[in-house]
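Morning F.,

Quick status update on the modeling queue. The single chain you submitted on Monday has been processed. Sequence for confirmation:
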Amino acid sequence: MHERWNCGLLKSPQAVCCGYDGAPEILLVNRQTLLGKIAFLGDYVPRLCGIATFTHDLCEAVSAASPESECYVGAVNDRASGYNYPERVRFQLLEKDIDAYRRAADYLNFNNADVLCVQHEFGIFGGPAGSHLLALLKEVRMPVVTTLHTILSKPDAAQRRVMDTLVQRSERIVVMAQKGAEILQETYAVPLSKIDVIPHGIPDIPLQSSELSKAQFGVEGRAVLLTFGLLGPGKGIEHAIEALPEIVRAHPEVVYLVLGATHPHLLAREGERYRLSLEWLAEERGVKEHVIFYNRFVTPEDLREFICATDIYVTPYLNEAQITSGTLAQVFGAGKAVVSTPYWHAQELLTEGRGSLVPFGDSKAIARAVVDYLDHPALLQQTSQSAWEAGRGMIWPAVAKRYLETFQKACVDRKRAPRTAFAGWTAASRCYDLPPVNLGHLTRMSDSTGIFQHALFTVPDFLHGYCTDDNARAFILCNLLDDLGGGHPTMVTLNGLSTSYLAFLASALNRDTGRFRNFMSFDRRWLESAGSEDSHGRALWALGIGATLSLHPGHRRLCAELFEAGLANVESFTSPRAWAFTLLGLHEYLRTFPDNHRAAAAREVLTGDLVRLWKSYATEEWPWFEPRATYDNARLCQALLLSGRSIPHTEALEIGLKSLRWLASIQKTPSGCFRPIGSDGFYLRDGARADFDQQPVEAQAMVAACLEAHRITGDDTWSREARRAFEWFLGRNDLGLPLYDPGTGGCADGLHPDRVNENQGAESTLAFHIALAEMTSAAHPLPART
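Structure tokens below.
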């Protein structure tokens, strides 16, 4: 029996870290006729999803085609408890745990896999746009073949970054349709020589009459229509049901089988709402007796029987950009006539009389196509024969042979252009791990009203109550963690408090004036009619993030409403940091509402305000926005970086980089540690610079701005600066003392000349955890320290 790893549960990568600090790459690709070990990475059965089934079928087919090869699987889990996997699965990783990806890379390297075959879909991996996968790909040493199950012709910025790196780190890219190859070339500039078009594999089902299989389902003598797959609104099944009255009038013997369970993620979020809406629609249209719902995830054997009983397969999908459909491939290859909307995969398969294409959302066209087949049995038979003959090149043995050829090409490609793991990887840098998440102190600092401002050591200070500033930060953290995922128990607890933090922000907004109040007493009394401009800007920043990243639809809608209500007042603000905080919120808000002209105009105005401010004060010796550098300084740079890239505004982008470069240069000690500008006097132009008290928000702001600079420029200098600022929390600072307390999960309020401030307030603790979330979302091994 082989050893099985759970990469989401292993405590440390050191056990397999040895032996890969310079091993010759050629040793892995020296066998041209024999691939000793073939690893597959993706979802896997018994997990209920299409990619899990595909990974299983591909692995088994390759194993059968190359019995001398050892084929094994790394399974991606969407829940901490995992699944009861078969022996083929050697290691598991939790999709939202980025460290699990690095441990998985260690396992693959340590076990000398000759090739890694990755099943890629943005939604099955953790991080923004599935970016956690890159942490694994940047460390594995073997050739990589990536099968793309989704190819976006119009990716957003995060998806584009992931795709570019995925292509770079893969020797070969497999797509299942010619359209996919075209998009890779046109959108991502992937050379055709790197792309292999291999169809979606299907079981080998003989061409036979459907009447032989109908009796077991009680539909003998009836014309059977079938749709199968995990149910969700994008399937368009409602349009097929809308077509049924017309179909039944012409052919009363028709029965429509809707086979498949509701998608597990949709079920968890909405229950059976979609399925119930379909059942109600069938009843309202008078065709209830002609529709049978099979609410289950069927075995391959059961599915084969359903397909054999089918006369016409219907795929009324609503999204043209579906590059592959395993359900379509399987039914097509079994020789069934297909009526389908013209999504990309259907356009390629159903040509030359091998099926019928109908417009999206057109129930009348679906009805005409189905009736045409049923009215003309010879046409139905001819279509079935043509589809079955075309499907012979799609059966799993043929597909497995093609994959083995691709694996061999990947090894040859690697031998021609060998590469090591991610540039900058060394034993020293690889063993640097981010601290584990511990949100215990933040949970203790929160109640049903919100989060308390201050702490007496580790105990919440009721006397000073609450403030909008800190509840905005707490809400930002909740949304960042939602975006990253995870599975840590305290993370679930904190996300449960996100409703309280958002409710606090909603209460803070004075609807009469459009201004956010800041301070609230312990007995829930507002202590002012309007808070500072900075607190208003922070509230908008949090709401902009919530409008885009929150997993809760109600939260997103409320965030958008509050954001729009509070935006107008910013035009009169004079605080540069309030402008910057608002710009950070606008950047997130406009990701979800790109056509909101008012928000876009506000971004233009505030960006222009910061640029003009820079021009008023900046010189070669003092490249800054004001005659003194005070607090949250890097947020000014970050705001211009984001706006400069998004608008786009070249001058703003250049100012953002130049000012951040200067800020990094003055916040560094001779020994190389981060030394933020102190709050006891700040830094006056032509004056003295305060070195203390050093505040956690300065380190957090620097982490965020430097990571953004790295994303824009690709310059690893910025990754090193982000790491330098983050390590300030951990003890790489003037006193050599850590501010973050891993025991409590709290962070000290500051660094004095002779000691750490031992109070663990909300601002400082949130600063650490937001910085940790941002470092985690960077999703790549940190480069070597300089």
